[in-house]
Amino acid sequence: MEGSVRVRFAPSPTGLLHIGGLRTALYNYLFAKNNDGDFILRIEDTDQERYVEEAEEDIVKSLLWSGIEFDEAPGKPGKVGPYRQSERKEMYEEYAEQLIEQGNAYYAFDTPEELDQMRERLKKSGNPAPKYDAITRMSMKNSLTLPQEEVERKLEEGDEYVIRLKVPRRETIRFEDEIRGFVSFESKGLDDQVLLKSDGMPTYHLANVVDDHLMKISHVIRGEEWLSSTPKHILMYEYFGWEPPKMAHLPLIMSPSGGKLSKRKAESEGIPINTRDYIEQKFEPEALINFLAYLGWSPGDDSELHTMDELIELFSLDRVSKGGAVFDYQKLIWYNEHYLREKSANELFPRVRSIAEEHGIQPDEAYMKEIIPLMKERVSKIEDFVTMGRFFFEDPKEYEDQAMKKWKDNSVDLLQAYVDEIEKLNVKEFKAKKLKDKIKEVINEHDVGFGPLMMPLRVAVTGMGYGPDLTPTLELLGKETTIRRIKTAIKRLG
């Protein structure tokens, strides 16, 4: 690949980092690292009205939690800073003025009321989507229609204005997208985009093009929603005489019920929408990253499990799909279970301990490190070690309704027979294998299968109808606790 690869993730600090934004950052990061390039974080905070105070901090925290490290950023400057667009305001004004001098942009003095009247007028004459463009600009108040001296007077007197891009009337704008191939747009479908707003702040379009050029960005990898803005950007590159970066537009993330995964849809389908939700719900970052990598890309074989380093090794833009990718929440849970199982009890213990403490439990370290491997095959998220495993610390207060369906007429007799057997064991004999042998003896004697004894036994000891392997659980709980709980259940459930 000629030249060095430099990519940027350029979120607007208008809210928490959306899960789609995290995927965009990930693809940029994987592409940069696969090509020994640089990954830059740029904060696009030109929309002052929608600016949210803690959003930038949330973006940085979310990326670092995910294992996505930036080479240059607001807190980690390189040679092309500053990295917040609000701190680069003067640069944009210069470039906007350059376009005006070249005849590729113009001052527009229209008030909001005049713009509304123009839209109303066009709607009445049968134009369903009125816009400020090559045709309408000639009947508006701008430096193309007003006499030169009036324009100068307005500027001197400090009248409010915006600077608009002068989009040609009949031109086909073509560019090659690294994911979609050649894309073409007719310029007559584009409006004369505002480049500099009346507060002197640039719009996304101007700031984006100027920054990508000055920061030597080689590839712009962003969401599909920006595809329709790209022709305006291509025009600006042409007017400035700059080589545009290569463009790649990522497929949309779709909701399981169809359509784009909007905030509303995500909420109704129980899908957390912001990266912060995944942090707070204590997902494994490796699981989320592995899952997101496959949301629109695949390495072209049947493999599904890869560390960040492996993903970097495998990633390429030509394997990114054009069509939308469905957010399968169950698949994410599957990834999470896998990464939990990969971790040792020593690694998990500090996190499990802090969750236990939140639940008012002070776990003994040695005991907890025996519980973790036993429960690993059953948990989906790290909190389950505590919430599903609460019975390891206290007798069940009630019995789950679902589990009670397994409690049958002969349950008491079978449990009583089992208690009689295990009461004979001394503490040293109270081991999983021995406890399983005793189950076999009781069911043979009563001529029943495993279920009729195992199910009520699990309910009695844990209060639930599911959970970790039963006899090792009894061994860990110990003789006294096990017998006490069975006797309590016999008394309470009868």
UniProtKB/TrEMBL annotation:
Protein's cellular compartments: Cytoplasm
Enzyme Commission (EC) number: 6.1.1.17
Cited SUPFAM superfamilies: An anticodon-binding domain of class I aminoacyl-tRNA synthetases, Nucleotidylyl transferase
Motif ('KMSKS' region): 260-264
Pfam families xrefs: Anticodon_2 (PF19269), tRNA-synt_1c (PF00749)
Residues where ATP binds: 263
Ribonucleoprotein is among the record's keywords: no
Enzyme class, UniProt record, top EC level: ligase
Top-level division of the source organism's lineage: Bacteria
GO molecular function: glutamate-tRNA ligase activity
Keyword entries, A-Z: Aminoacyl-tRNA synthetase, ATP-binding, Cytoplasm, Ligase, Nucleotide-binding, Protein biosynthesis
Spans through the membrane: none
Placement of sequence motif 'HIGH' region: 11-21
Signal peptide: none
Domain Glutamyl/glutaminyl-tRNA synthetase class Ib catalytic: 5-334
Aminoacyl-tRNA synthetase class I anticodon-binding domain sequence ranges: 356-490
Catalytic activity: tRNA(Glu) + L-glutamate + ATP = L-glutamyl-tRNA(Glu) + AMP + diphosphate
Coiled coil location: none
Described function: Catalyzes the attachment of glutamate to tRNA(Glu) in a two-step reaction: glutamate is first activated by ATP to form Glu-AMP and then transferred to the acceptor end of tRNA(Glu).
Similarity remark: Belongs to the class-I aminoacyl-tRNA synthetase family. Glutamate--tRNA ligase type 1 subfamily.
PANTHER family (alphabetical): GLUTAMATE--TRNA LIGASE, GLUTAMATE--TRNA LIGASE, MITOCHONDRIAL-RELATED
Assembly and oligomerization: Monomer.
Protein name: Glutamate--tRNA ligase
Species annotation: Fodinibius salicampi
Gene designation per UniProt: gltX
